Amino acid sequence: MGPNLIELATSPAHEETARLMQICNACRYCEGFCAVFPAMELRRVFEPADTAYLANLCHHCGACYHACQYAPPHEFGVNVPQALAERRLESYGQFAWPRPMAKVFDHNGLIVSMAVTAVLALAVGLMLLLISPTLFWGVHLGEGAFYQIMPHVVMAGIPLAITGFVVVALVMSWRRYWRATGGKWTGWRTGWQSVREAMAASASMRYLGGNNSGDGDGCSGADERPSRLRRYYHHFTFYGFMLCFVSTSLGTLYHYLLGREAPYGYFEPPVLIGTIGGVMLCIGTAGLWHEKRKMDKATKSLKTLGMDYAFIWLLFWVSATGLILLAVRHTGYMGLTLAVHLGFVYAFFLVLPFSKFVHGLYRFAALIAYASEHPRS
Amino acid sequence: MYTDQINIAETHWDVLVIGAGNAGLCAAITAAEAGCSVLVLDSAPRDMRGGNTRHTRNLRAQHDAPTDVLTESYSLDEYYDDLLRVTKGVTNESLAKMTLEKSAELTGWLGARGVRFQPALTGTLNLGRTNAFFLGGGRAMLNSLCRHAEGLGVVFRYDTEVSAMNLDDGFCEGVTLGDNTEVTATKVIATAGGFEANLDWLAEGWGDAAQNFLVRGTPYNKGVVLRSLLDQGIKPVGDVDQCHAVAIDARAPKYDGGISSRIDGVPFGVVVNKHAKRFYDEGEDFWPKRYAIWGRLVAAQPDQIGYVIVDKIGAGRFMPSVFTPISDDTLEGLAGLLDLDPQTLGQTVDEFNAACPPAPIDQSILDGKATSGLNPEKTNWAAPIAVPPFYGFPLRPGITFTYMGVAVNDKAQILMADGTPSPNLFAAGEIMAGNILGQGYLAGIGMTIGGVFGRLAGGSAARMLNKGTGE
User: Fold this and answer.
1) What is the pTM of this model?
2) What is the rounded distance in angstroms from the CA atom of residue B72 to the CA atom of residue A93?
3) Which of A154, A358, B80, B463 is 20 to 30 A from B9, alpha carbon to alpha carbon?
4) CA distance A220 to chain B (A)
5) Closest CA to B290 of B369, B379, B370, B386
């Protein structure tokens, strides 16, 4: 790792993590579970940058808590999943850009929910106000039906305008993370190898199995019972999201390249792929919510639950309203459903860099660093 | 039926197992798989269940070819030679050979019951050839076995201490619990561990020094079951002062410190007593082969305390400790922090430095870089303690487990003083490990003994009840 170009402040969550890592580093029984412990073993001192790196390697599977000989009621009181969850949340604030937005992570669940509500109200309100009721509540069929209610320029222009800011904010946040944790580009050959390993680990969620050789029994729930459900639900969410992304991109190509305007038929690629993606996202997010509720409360962190739930539900409603729109687009409710769906989509874009979405960003960066620290022979 | 609604005193059990550690669970599972009704009692609360198994990490297993969890091969002869070397022959040859032979089946048997192992060739310790490591350590292993046992209908009661074994001429009529209720069973398997958490009992072997011992193991092994058995005519095995005692960080908790209280720095510096004098060859052999004698060495020093002194270079040569080392930029300053006489410590280190051979040392081999002219000499890895900052780690004897126990036969039956087996009492684990490990220490053999004798005890009990063992 290179020099840390940004000094991170210390904090109670950092100090607790550093205390635990000193205990864990003298024990090391958990080194087979995931990436966190092998990364820890390369370190003797734990600065805020180290704890941020370790926290972003952790999937919160809970296996190390239930395996821990030092977990409460032992006087060492070791609870790694909880400490890392809190350090992770805090690190999102430390890396957020623009800097004043760091505070958003102090009350993320509340702020994200309020922002979504506001954007939703604004979108529906403005459309009710600006669009004539006959148009809004009318039945529109055939190509360009959506754009009779809202011109394509406006519908696509709003997210496009936000996207510029979102991309800059995400890139700057990533850069802050990378500089603060001493990430170093090791050159194209080994660097690319690390990126490939990080991509493979992300795509398979290799370390969310309770076994870093890749075939673990899964998350450790209450009563220490292992379950792979959370991993599967995350796959549904992630790949569902990717399919929706592909669907949207295809729609754009249809619009500009083929000159064909939405809505498209149920079995045309943009709709078919989007429908599958949307259903997967609904199943995945609802499942993740359920799994999070079931999680052993000993390892939960109340501080992070608001952020977790707000993002899970936002994703759920983005996809659910999209599916509802698909179901009612030939009726007089198309206008209202479109307004609600667009409200959720716009809100999602807007809060993206300041929501739990960023976990993927830092997780991926941490996995690249991990891969370059632990070259495979 | 919800098992927590069963009144355990009103039920007559086929098999009662005392202790929910590795040995007890292997016994309970074997008996339950054969169709026995099984009750397991543990004196600890659920979170602290399983005695010292919670602090273990691996078991030592014989194998003739590489397996999924062990590399190369570890023959019966080599295993037995290792055992003879550490015990200096204080072992029961036939029981020992049987145990080592049966150790070959253990990882497969445990794996089939939900226990996960780390793949061979991973991990920090170079024991992948002889020892199979539990993924996540002993507590993870316990969780898997308990879950499996519950699935078989085994009933568990935690926070439930057995205060007396009710024996009539070697026949166990039942046990009395801490609240004076009685539990009865046709067969009783004692897997209740040793007495390392009973400082008064340790004092019988160690005198007043025992009060300064730290107990690395579980605080729940007070030896109540063992004492009750020995008081009622059961044949003892092993000496009262034999225990696994290593030198651990003196700042560790009085009980339950476990693995992380270990200090690995001894070979890379000097160790002095409270008078700031050296007292033993710190570089006699590789640390894994020597750490088990340092508990006794420190126990023999005044006030049972010692101090590892290393410099900046030495501190980089071993695994970090759970406690931040005490450090200072000067030796005098460090002596002050450790409550040692600065002049004597300075003199001890100066003499040591002057007696060191030319650099460098090589910690990967027995490099023969010995001091000359000291008493005692340091025979390997002798390098001057000269680069500040200087670090100090206080040491105390840390007891993990005791060796004195009950004598058993090859069916895990407990033997009476005259050598006849009890008709319905069995033992497995630490409470009988002294039959095989009379003294010394071999990493992972305790879990092997527990697993092998646990299965034997459960199987023998079931067979005597005319239940099929399925094996």
Assistant:
1) 0.93
2) 50
3) B463
4) 10
5) B379
